[in-house]
Design a protein that fits this description.
Blueprint (H helix, E strand, L loop, with lengths): L2 H17 L7 H20 L7 H6 L2 E12 L1 E12 L11 E10 L6 E9 L2 H9 L2 E2 L7 E2 L6 H4 L9 E5 L8 H4 L2 E4 L1 H8 L5 H5 L11 H11 L4
Helix pairs in contact: 2-9
């Protein structure tokens, strides 16, 4: 996705959420989110200073790609959209993508609207269930922490992350350790997910199913996710 399009989406992010949080967007908008998720993953994995170790992806039970937009001055908020992909607990393979909403609060000097993207790697099944059935508060419920980096053997030996339910990575160096990430939340967008798959099944059945065919628009993202999970660079 071109950078100008991503900035345009950022400018209308708050308006879209406020105008109709229950309305399912057009399919093209949902496809854009999937393509953006691939872009975010590729960008993060391309830089040794932000890349996710393959061992983390192999142990993970789910992953959330978010497109967040911050705004305000001194005390502000961020809101956005994202996608969730969970592993099938029986096959341990990545499943089909579903859609989520994101938001939160942050403190600090912020001039204008600043775009940032993040990947939340979920390490336990209970937290994955919260992601597609209710709401995850990254500070209170999940105690999200910055994940170890591919480029830092010392970071991978740090025990702080080993009991964490969620490990956070971002395309902005150092951002994932900040207040903006720790104060965030994710909730399921069941209507958008049902609309995308043209089904009456709810999000839990879709996310954990082995009978929903992977949409063609999500092939590239899943191929890339599997590639990195298997240790590809």
């Amino acid at each position: 996705m071109k950078h100008i399009n991503r900035i345009a989406l950022a400018c209308i992010g708050f308006a879209l959420l406020a105008a109709s949080s229950d309305a399912a967007p057009k399919r093209e908008k949902l496809v854009d989110r999937i393509v953006s998720g691939e872009y975010v993953l590729e960008e993060i994995m391309a830089d040794p200073a932000t890349s996710i170790p393959a061992e983390i992806l192999q142990d993970a039970q789910g992953i959330i790609f978010t497109l967040n937009y911050r705004g305000g001055f001194m005390v502000g908020g961020h809101a956005g959209q994202g996608i969730l992909i969970a592993k099938n607990p029986i096959t341990n393979e990545w499943g089909v993508p579903a859609f989520v909403r994101t938001g939160g609060a942050n403190i600090g000097i912020q001039l204008g609207l600043k775009e940032f993207d993040a990947v939340y790697v979920i390490m336990d099944l209970d937290t994955v269930r919260k992601a597609y059935t209710g709401r995850i508060d990254f500070a209170a419920d999940a105690a999200a922490v910055a994940g170890p980096l591919e480029s830092s053997s010392e970071a991978q030996q740090n025990i702080d992350y080993k009991n964490a339910k969620i490990l956070v990575y971002s395309n902005k160096k150092g951002l994932y350790a900040g207040v903006a990430v720790k104060a965030g939340w994710v909730s399921p967008n069941n209507k958008a997910t049902k609309f995308f798959y043209n089904t009456d099944y709810n999000m839990p059945e879709i996310v954990l199913s082995d009978w929903f065919e992977l949409p063609a628009e999500a092939n590239a993202l899943l191929q890339r996710l599997n590639y990195y999970t298997e240790g590809g660079r």
